[in-house]
Structure formats: C-alpha cells, structure tokens
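>> received
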Amino acid sequence: MVLWIPKNREELKKHLSDPLFKNAYFLMFSSLTSAGSGFFFWLIAARFYSTADIGLASAIISAMGLISMLSLLGFDISLVRFLPEREDKQELINSCLTISFIFSLALALIFIAGINIWSPSLSIIRENKILLLLFVAFTAIAPLTALQSSGVFVGFRKAEYSFIQTIVTFARIGIVPFLTAFGALGIYASYGLTPILAFLLGFLLILRVCKYRPFPSVKREVINDLFHFSSGNYIARIFEELPRVVLPIMVINVLGAERNAYFFIAWQISMLLLAIPRWTSISLLAEGSYNQEEMVWNARRAMKFILILLAMAIAGIFLFGKYLLWIFGEVYAKNSLDVLLILVLASIPFAFNVVYASIKRVQKEVKPVIWIYASIAVITLVGSYLLARSIGIVGIGIAWLIGNVVTAGGVGVKMIQR
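>> returned
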C-alpha cells in the first residue's frame, strides 16, 4: 500500500470533489468535531469533577445513547439508501422523525420505570426529579438529531451540513465548569443540551437541500416500503451499537465507577479511529445508492483510503498515546494506556467488516449485515464480562479485538467463496 500524495492542485481538487471522498471527509470531520468537543468536555470534567462523578455521568450518557440507538429503528440507513430514488422526500423524512420520537419517549419511560432491574447503580435518575426530566427530554430528542445528521444529509450527499450541525456540540464545553455544584447531574446537563441545539439547526439546514416543512406525520405507504430494509438494519444497528453503549454500563456494575472512568476515556479515544472506516463506509453506501454499477470499484478505493488513514492514526497512538492520556491526568496515563493500545488495533479488522456491510446494504441484503454486527457484539460482550473479572479493563480491549478479528475472518471466507 503506497501513501497517496496529490501531485498538483488540480489532482487534489479532483480528489476532494469526488463525492465518495468529499462526503467521507465531511462525515469524519463531523465525527471528529463531535469527538473533539467530547474530548475537551471530558478533559475539563476530569479537572473539575471527581472520578466517581465522571463514572456515574458517563454511565447515564451511555444509557441515553443506548435508548437513542434503539429508537433509530434503522431509519438512518434507510434515509441514505432511499432518499436518492424517492419523490416523496418530505413524507419520508417526517415519517421517520415522528416514529423515532414516539419510540424513544416510550423507551425512556420504560427504562426509568424498571431502572432497579436494568441498572440499579443508575437509580439516581428516578430519585432526582431534575435529572429525571432532563433524561426524558434529552433522550427523546437525541435520535432525531442523529437521523438528520447521518440520514437526511448523507442521503442528499450534503455531508457538509452534518459537519455544520456538529459544531454546536462545543457549547457543552463552556457550560460544564459552571455546574460543578451539581456533581454528575451538572456533567449530564451540560452534555445533553447540545442534541437539542443541533436538532433545531438541522431543520434550517434541511430547507437548503429540499422543499421541506417539518410536521409530525406518519405516512403508511412510506413505512410499508421501508419496513423490510429498515427492520433488518435496525437489528444490525442494535448489535453494532451494543458494545459502545453497554460496555461502560457493564464496567461500572462489574468494576466500579473509578475503573469505568479509566476505561471510558480510552474507549472514547479509540472511537476517533473508528470514525475513519465507519463514515467512509456510509459515504460508500450513499455513492452505491446513486450508482450501483461502480460499487466494486468504489469499495476498493474506499478500503485503500481507510487503511492509509488508519495506519497513520494507529502509529500516532502508539507513539504519543501516553502523552495524550496524560492530559486527562496522571492516573489516566497509568491506568488507561494498555487498554487503549489494544482497542485501536481492532480498528483494522473493523474496517473490513463495515465496508463489506455497506456493499450488502447497497445490494439490499440485510442478513449478512446482521450477521457481521451480531458476531462482533456477542463475542465482545461475552468476552468482556468473562475477562473483566480476571484481568480488569484490559480484558475488555482484548474481547473487542477478538470480536472484530473473528468476524473479519468470516467476511474473508465469504469473499473468497464468491
């Protein structure tokens, strides 16, 4: 693999104007912007709040993320796949947003009602009325913002609007230092405000790409057309997101809030690297939806692009990861480095898995996509639970690596057979 370097300005301009790479760059910038604001957010929080507050708040945020992910119902992928070919774009967008909102609100209330069963360590959500109201409000809005950013804008090949939308996430950085008196509630309130701001901005941006009037509605014909594809991708998305949102909750229940703080920081940094293959594969899905004839060629270009960027990023983590963690504090540099190095290695097999999943989504074959993400999730979560008790948070990194390597091996076998 040779590192590609543009020979002149025209070649660079051609590369950046290529829809596959242009949208991939903007999606990665969006992810990096959100992750960057999160990085500084947790950096500031780590300086002003105790490790117990960090651990508790991160678990509450993970619970919100889990419910939000379940509330997407596969509509984000469906919007990317079907917006290019449908004429009733307004009905498609409003139907997806309305159903997701209703579902997320219902799940939030169910989670709170049975919180002593799902996660007793988070019972403070029900005990604190302010936190309860914020949790319901933030959790209901969060999936709608995600549908706008990773569904509507990508489907229109306007990923630059996703980037603009994520800029508002920096608002939480300026809020969190002033809410220290509220402990974990202050961290969560600062963090959860930004999805609402981004959601409002998203409506204004949608108006720039199509004739659109936001109005709660559900058009049966639209949902019927999307049902099979959305339901399959919904199941796949549940498995895809389970490790991200469940692992912090698992760690706080098995190893305690302090260990969860050490793991959570390493996990968030590793997510920066996963943005490269994840968003490039989404851009590949958008391009395949517009032009299926060039899918194989685009997939090869996307894979080369991903591996080049990952190689540079992984090398940087291995060389400077300790210093990066030191920014959060000496205890994080001491306790988070080993698991961080293992987590970032998993990004390579993860890349093969997500690119293959995008190819199958373009072909409207959802069973292989479910198999890929179910394999990663089951191996990771079972392995994490077993290894965490014996070797701590390093065991979780090992389980994540094994889950992706085994799945990528299965993908390789499938491709060889074809």
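>> Residues 9-417 form one domain.
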